[in-house]
Design goal:
168 residues; alpha/beta; single chain; 4 helices; two-stranded antiparallel sheet
Length: 168
């Protein structure tokens, strides 16, 4: 099963501020938001999306329609509309046991940090600006990841990375 990190981040690695996307209210970012959300939907539709509790709580519409929503949390009692599991490895095993060919890891920072050790790919949207924020995406280690594709737009890029295979 393929594990894919999907993330949008600013040049300074910011992915969140006050439990929201830092560019969510920027008037000049409407075109970017539409393109990014369209790409996210196209990639993830029909596949499980794994996220932490705060990411779940930040969603404007819960659950994400058309895909299994899995929340990694140790406090499952108040989460409705998603499968709640206690750890990322448990969530990935659950997806594999359900016969899914792919799983998308959708945030937040702690879940991304853990997923970097097991993911096969990263699908990154890089915003060509810096934003103030309180949540950051971990560094992408160039020794572990290689850029496989990039499409540049005015103000942002879609960039794909694959894990570097290590041979003995």
């Amino acid at each position: 099963m393929e594990t894919i990190i999907v993330v949008a981040m600013a040049q300074n690695r910011v992915i969140g501020r006050d439990n929201a996307l830092p560019w969510a209210s920027a008037a000049d970012m409407a075109g970017f938001r539409k393109a990014d959300l369209g790409r996210f939907k196209e990639m993830t539709l029909g596949f499980p999306c794994v996220m932490g509790r705060r990411t779940w709580e930040s969603l404007p519409r819960r659950p994400l329609p058309g895909r299994p929503n899995i929340v990694v949390s140790r406090s499952p009692s108040d989460i409705r509309g998603a499968t709640v599991l206690g750890s990322l490895p448990e969530a990935i095993r659950h997806c594999e046991n359900q016969g899914h060919g792919k799983v998308f890891v959708c945030g937040g920072a702690a879940v991304y940090g853990e997923a970097l050790a097991v993911a096969d790919r990263i699908e990154l949207t890089l915003v060509h600006r810096e934003f103030d924020g309180d949540v950051f995406f971990p560094e992408i280690d160039p020794g572990l990841w290689k850029k496989t594709d990039a499409t540049d737009f005015d103000g942002f890029s879609f960039i794909g990375y694959s894990r570097v295979s290590v041979t003995g």
